[in-house]
């Protein structure tokens, strides 16, 4: 790795936890000690302490057939019982589980007792529809309490859910239903997004329309929640209204025990090829690590905290840190249906104020978009209840980290930058609040019980100060158990590169600094090679965002005859600095010089395009692949997973107009 990425590593600011926070912290340094002493014993202890086992396990990890692991395989549990009934039995039935806020201002509060009843009813309904152990149920819902109810009802009867994000098209839904062979789809008429009802049921109808290609339809029933109130078409015999069948079902439902390795869910994630991968997670190990990390990384005090993870349940973050982790731990959490700026740009902060949110877990892309609008919006609200902030999904630039800390966290709340993936199931790298001294921009250290290394192409651990590839060197409880229906792809994608060492290859570039702290440098396909120097997109983006006028930046490597690759940047300007747009040539020149000063001349972008939006997936990840197409003058590839498909044509016209 060249010295060019030193820019990021020169970050010398450190923030020790306050004595007060540390004294009351849930996590302690002892966790590392006991995990290091014996990893398997450590996880066995966590599994026993955090979960209820109908049949206690004897076996912990079985790694005799790598990369196919089992955890706690002879134990039995019920995941929904762990998230619901046991809290009621412990006397906490009146505790609020969900504080739901609809985008249109509707509100619902659901206690643990009520949630248990509702999940039990839906479990009966699903059983009456013929769903049993291992059957697949697709869930295609907005962020309403029923989304969580549906997931838990499927889990309760030992079936497997496949949640499909409500923003995905009928085609994407069709592909996911087919791949998993789902028997039931749970959906809604529609939900509120950006101030209006966005319909969902028509996409289900379209997905299930007769394709005339002889493929056998697996879906027998569609269960429909009324939320949007929009008109929907109805197929008698197939479609059922939730409000007709659920309230009529009994709230008494016995949660049966299932083996710990019973599949809990499939979640599709995009890979390097077109076909999405159905990542498979199982029950006991997954729930153990989701609950452990949720408790320790978010310093959870279930009696007093109000936790809010802004992710949709359509993503892994919503699975592990909205549904499973928080509910297993008996937390009280906010669920918000809509977009951050509906009906006004302060909506999130209004919600924090209203519910006295203590813990906020969100993505850098959201933070940067709030930076872009300006601090005067959050400053209108009382955010003093916030005591801990989390980040996930992308590297968080030091500038965004500092803004998050000072504007949202009043310079007091610790920030945990959590690295993990759909495949890892739960958080793998993060500071422990109250224990770790935090550093802006670095995810820092593996959580207790997880073994991470940064290695070179030969699989050798790099020295502190050097960069390489991020690997997980030991199996972990919430690891993916495979790709649905494709064991070969599972082995090839994650385990072949470091087969000799038996390491899991995450696909991310990383570097350890002199303290041994880990810095994520983006996907390895986002690493550029300019005149033989390795440059990371994350590093140049950080430099650009550190400029006072920049709100957000995306950098790609475009092929270049002279230098192999050249740096091409796409930059959004802050509302408060719109004046600089009067002279874009001067602005571009200024930004190039700035990057040169920040990192070195080699990192100066060949081209800088000033744009109003960046292309992002619906989970907020910048789609650099598309920007690379533009930068290299190619036709832009598949844009169907973009949140806003218009963005690319706007950018394209900007770029061609310039040339
Ligand atoms: C949880 C989630 C996984 C990819 C991962 C990495 C990036 C996630 C990050 C991060 C830097 C962090 N990523 N968290 N990069 N710092 N704190 O996002 O899962 O959607 O599967 O994405 O996201 O590149 O490989 P998923």
Automatic annotation (TrEMBL):
InterPro entries: Ac_CoA_lig, ACAS_N, AMP-bd_C, AMP-bd_C_sf, AMP-binding_CS, AMP-dep_synth/lig_dom, ANL_N_sf. Residues 90-484 form the AMP-dependent synthetase/ligase domain. It comes from Microbacterium halimionae. The modification N6-acetyllysine is found at residue 621. It catalyses: acetate + ATP + CoA = acetyl-CoA + AMP + diphosphate. Catalyzes the conversion of acetate into acetyl-CoA (AcCoA), an essential intermediate at the junction of anabolic and catabolic pathways. AcsA undergoes a two-step reaction. In the first half reaction, AcsA combines acetate with ATP to form acetyl-adenylate (AcAMP) intermediate. In the second half reaction, it can then transfer the acetyl group from AcAMP to the sulfhydryl group of CoA, forming the product AcCoA. SUPFAM superfamilies: Acetyl-CoA synthetase-like. GO terms for biological process: acetyl-CoA biosynthetic process from acetate. Gene3D superfamilies: 3.30.300.30, N-terminal domain of ligase-like. Keywords: Acetylation, ATP-binding, Ligase, Magnesium, Metal-binding, Nucleotide-binding. ATP binds at residues 393-395, 417-422, 508, 523, 534. This is Acetyl-coenzyme A synthetase. Belongs to the ATP-dependent AMP-binding enzyme family. Its cofactor is Mg(2+). One of its GO terms (cellular component) is cytosol. Residues 539-621 form the AMP-binding enzyme C-terminal domain. Mg(2+) binds at residues 545, 547. It comes from the Bacteria.
